[in-house]
Amino acid sequence: MSKYxxxxxxxxxxxxxxxxxxxxxxxxxxxxxxxYVNLDPAAEEFAHEPDLDIKxxxxxxxxxxxxxxxxxGGLIYCFEFLLENLDFLTEALDPLxxxxxxxxxxxxxxxxxxxxxxxxxxVKHLTRTGALDVNLCAAYLLEATFVVDRAKFFAGTLSAMSxxxxxxxxxxxxxxxxxxxxGQIAKRDLKRFVDPDTTLLDDEPGxxxxxxxxxxxDPQTLMKGNSFKRxxxxxxxxxxxxxxxxxxxxxxxxxxxxxxILSYIDDAIQYHEAQEPKEPNDAIEVDEADD
Length: 291
Ligand SMILES: Nc1nc2c(ncn2[C@@H]2O[C@H](COP(=O)(O)OP(=O)(O)O)[C@@H](O)[C@H]2O)c(=O)[nH]1
Ligand SMILES: [Mg+2]
Fold this sequence. Notes:
Strands 3-2-4-1-5-6-7 form a seven-stranded parallel sheet, sandwiched between helices.
């Protein structure tokens, strides 16, 4: 039986859990079934209670206390433990039918996405090559306020691209928290972020050439220096040469915006192709069974 899911990723505070909440509300409003999996062992409060929570397998607090680890090391330990106990996921997800959208809410530690092969192993287990056969789409969130600092925006875009390359599943990139930049950035300029345009680095407002007067070793000076500019151009050039990243815009308070992003995810995993045509009465029966 095919399964369908979305893995919601991105840096801490990008709005992943808020997006999951909005997605679940939207699915409920449209009489669709979903199964919410929380894989952030540090997440405490939820607008919708998770159907499966990593905290029922392992507690970050216990790990930190027993192993003498900090929050980042503790999180890595939790994921290594999850990989050794994949039955925890398999048993919960295996009975789900193709009607369900499995929503997996990830933690934000950047280490997870960039330099350890934990996520590829998890994704492998979830998708065809593994036991579960989930048609999985990755959704990578970056918050729109990053457009204010172009070097930061390209650094964030590089991490989105590195997740795309590492995971090898259909992928949507999302600029979240669009409400925070509304009215602050012209539509024409925003387009250059949505399809990242490397010339953004050449015409950054307030960017002046290095006058060589700064204090050597001072971070503020370094961030204005020509070497930093060359580094950013190299990062942007790399992103440009792959030509893989473009963003969808998310206004999480606007249900149409959430619905539009869901359509991209549905298309990426071909959700609708697998659904049985339903008689109107069937739909009512399914809903009753859900309640
Ligand atoms: N203004 C605004 N704030 C948001 C939005 N999405 C999330 N937030 C806030 O950003 C913070 C982090 O959000 P959360 O969903 O927990 O991020 P996560 O760490 O990626 O799961 C919270 O205080 C949210 O209320 C948004 O679209 N607009
Ligand atoms: Mg979260």
